[in-house]
Amino acid sequence: MTQIPPRPATLVAAGLLVVAACSPASESSDVPPVRFEPGDYAGDAWLKGNTHTHTTNSDGDSPPEVVARWYRDHGYDFLVLSDHNVFTDPATLSHLTDSTFLLIAGEEVSSRFDGKPVHVNGLNIPGVIEAREAETLVATLQANVDAIREVEGVPHINHPNFRWAFGAEELAQVEGDRLLEIHNGEPNVHNHGGGGTPGMEEVWDILLTGGKRIYGIAVDDAHHFQGEFAPDRSNPGRAWVAVRAAAREPHAIMTALEAGHFYASTGVELSDVVVGERRLEVHIATRGDFRYTTVFVGAGGEVLSTSVANPAVYELTGDVGYVRARVTDSGGAVAWTQPVFVEAIPLEGS
Ligand SMILES: [Zn+2]
Ligand SMILES: [Zn+2]
Question: Which end of the chain has fewer CB atoms within 10 angstroms, the N or the C?
């Protein structure tokens, strides 16, 4: 194949690299008329955090002190205590926080519709939020998302498959939400779906393909810090997010989450995610003799490519809508990067 020289490129304001897409040569060029949306990953360090955990203030088995201490002692950078319809005030635990461990205020705003649980976490909230009920399931979801936004908190919608409460059809109709639990460590929430009902990763792709900008988070939803740690119990340490934030403080972490500058994990750690014009690199922080497989997924949940390399690299060759990566290790643990959206390249001078 003939080597085609790089297309002329012009650096313009706001860091946009614009390639002329109107020249006659463009049809035969290797350079596709699309690119990844530019995005700034601020900060160097990944901050590990869990945004969903319970204490004895609701249905957890341990007081806030014990719960916060567990996460601090296990290397987490931040934690949200999210009791059902109770505000567990981080100020009462200030003796546990320092420059390495942050507590962010939260609540699991817990409503229901027609017997189905409708649970929405509110992150970085100023005080208790009263759960709202409404005429339909979608309206109930929306009302609680709105209640969290009204106090400038950040909502995330929890465990849709818990009691098979709702799915992609309902989630697609909700507005003002950016974060969805795609993995929840509680053993009864049916992350993987079944019996004809989609799992959460499939739901995520349905939403993304339909044009909803939604990012996937993984959480513990831990209740059990005492007694046996077992698969049928709701123990901590199973799922988390690693966030690349501009600063180690609540607002910066919230901003990074809502911009998709994080990955979700059940055990695989990443050292870097690099988004270029047409290139997505996923750098895996390997451990021991574990082996890794990375799958790049696009619109419709289509597998675009599979890599066993590190870094795993995806080269953009056309309009695939979005690209996200799922890295699985040889023990079954997973890391999910957030979708990077594909956009058409604006014509020069337009
Ligand atoms: Zn819940
Ligand atoms: Zn919960």
Answer: N
